[in-house]
TrEMBL record:
<dbReference type="GO" id="GO:0004300">
    <property type="term" value="F:enoyl-CoA hydratase activity"/>
</dbReference>
<dbReference type="InterPro" id="IPR029045">
    <property type="entry name" value="ClpP/crotonase-like_dom_sf"/>
</dbReference>
<dbReference type="InterPro" id="IPR018376">
    <property type="entry name" value="Enoyl-CoA_hyd/isom_CS"/>
</dbReference>
<dbReference type="InterPro" id="IPR001753">
    <property type="entry name" value="Enoyl-CoA_hydra/iso"/>
</dbReference>
<dbReference type="GO" id="GO:0005739">
    <property type="term" value="C:mitochondrion"/>
</dbReference>
<dbReference type="Pfam" id="PF00378">
    <property type="entry name" value="ECH_1"/>
</dbReference>
<dbReference type="GO" id="GO:0006635">
    <property type="term" value="P:fatty acid beta-oxidation"/>
</dbReference>
<protein>
    <recommendedName>
        <fullName>Probable enoyl-CoA hydratase, mitochondrial</fullName>
        <ecNumber>4.2.1.17</ecNumber>
    </recommendedName>
</protein>
<keyword id="KW-0456">Lyase</keyword>
<comment type="similarity">
    <text>Belongs to the enoyl-CoA hydratase/isomerase family.</text>
</comment>
<keyword id="KW-0443">Lipid metabolism</keyword>
<keyword id="KW-0276">Fatty acid metabolism</keyword>
<dbReference type="InterPro" id="IPR014748">
    <property type="entry name" value="Enoyl-CoA_hydra_C"/>
</dbReference>
Length: 258
């Protein structure tokens, strides 16, 4: 472990990849406030750490995370959640600049599904079970579920799933685009993908992520303008000179990530 926490484990499976493992296995990785604080803090440290160029978030075979910690949440009042901005820090997960891959095995329910959807790429094992069952405990998804699921799979399907609380399989998630693919060895494949991405020039990777994310927030015309501005900016980097020279000289590029 490269950073010390109580509810997560941070390790480095390959030199430029950080692996964050949600680690409350007895409660299927129920997302307590303490766990989320640690997750947000670890992601923020890894985001500014120069050796880390890609991040994988995972759980264990049985559960990615079975949602927010219901026992911790159940006695909260409106005043509690309002005053303390309950769930607001969850949004920091999607503010990470570096690529974040979720490797989902087992349950990804409620807040667990929402964390996965806040990641840039989701890989699912054949056993993965997704769902937003908040309706069954008298609330609604509160960490991006109603917004990100609609964007991922469209209104009718999102309505059906959120209003019924029905779970969906890895196969459905892949067919609908919630996950990029189903993978037999999801943990190894996520690390392999992260390692591949970590081998690219890190500024270009982060620029591409930013440009793609703009597509969710703006019109096509604005998005195209934004893309071009980011593209132009890359001509100020060493990696653009290196990448294009290497191609012309028929040799592999050596990225300086600058
Ligand atoms: C607290 C949880 C939990 C959760 C599981 N556990 N999910 N504790 N919060 N979300 C605990 C159980 O209480 C139990 O503890 C232990 O984990 C094992 O779970 P079991 O239920 O015994 O396992 P199983 O019978 O296999 O059922 C698995 C399950 C079920 C189907 C995933 O645990 C379940 O329905 N969990 C809740 C799923 C859910 O509603 N998630 C959405 C939460 S709301 P003990 O001590 O009894 O052994 C949410 C919205 C928040 O996330 C808003 C945005 C963040």
């Amino acid at each position: 472990s490269i950073l010390q926490y109580q509810n997560i484990i941070v390790s480095r499976p390959t030199p430029a990849v950080a692996l964050v493992t949600l680690n409350r296995p007895k409660v299927l990785n129920a997302l307590s406030a303490a766990l989320i604080d640690e997750l947000v803090s670890a992601l923020s440290l890894l985001d500014t750490d120069d050796t880390t160029r890609a991040i994988v978030i995972t759980g264990n075979e049985r559960a990615f995370a079975a949602g927010a910690d219901i026992k911790e949440m159940k006695d909260k009042t409106y005043v509690d959640v309002f005053k303390h901005k309950f769930l607001e820090n969850w949004t920091l997960i999607s503010h990470v600049r570096k690529p974040v891959i979720a490797a989902v095995s087992g349950y990804a329910l409620g807040g667990g599904c929402e964390i996965a959807m806040a990641c840039d790429i989701v890989l699912a094992s054949p056993t993965a079970v997704f769902g937003l069952p908040e309706i069954d405990i008298g609330v609604i998804p509160g960490a991006g579920g109603t917004q990100r699921l609609v964007r991922a799979i469209g209104k009718s399907r999102a309505m059906e799933l959120i209003l019924s609380g029905r779970r969906f399989s890895a196969t459905d998630a892949a067919a609908w685009g919630v996950v990029s693919r189903v993978s037999e060895d999801v943990f190894a494949d996520a690390i392999e993908l992260a390692t591949t991405i970590a081998g690219k020039g890190t500024i270009a990777v982060q620029a591409a992520k930013e440009a793609i994310n703009v597509a969710f927030e703006t019109s096509l015309d604005e998005g195209l303008r934004h893309e071009r501005t980011i593209f132009y900016g890359l001509f100020a980097t060493q990696d653009q000179k290196e990448g294009m020279s290497a191609f012309a000289e028929k040799r592999p590029p050596v990225w300086s990530h600058s």
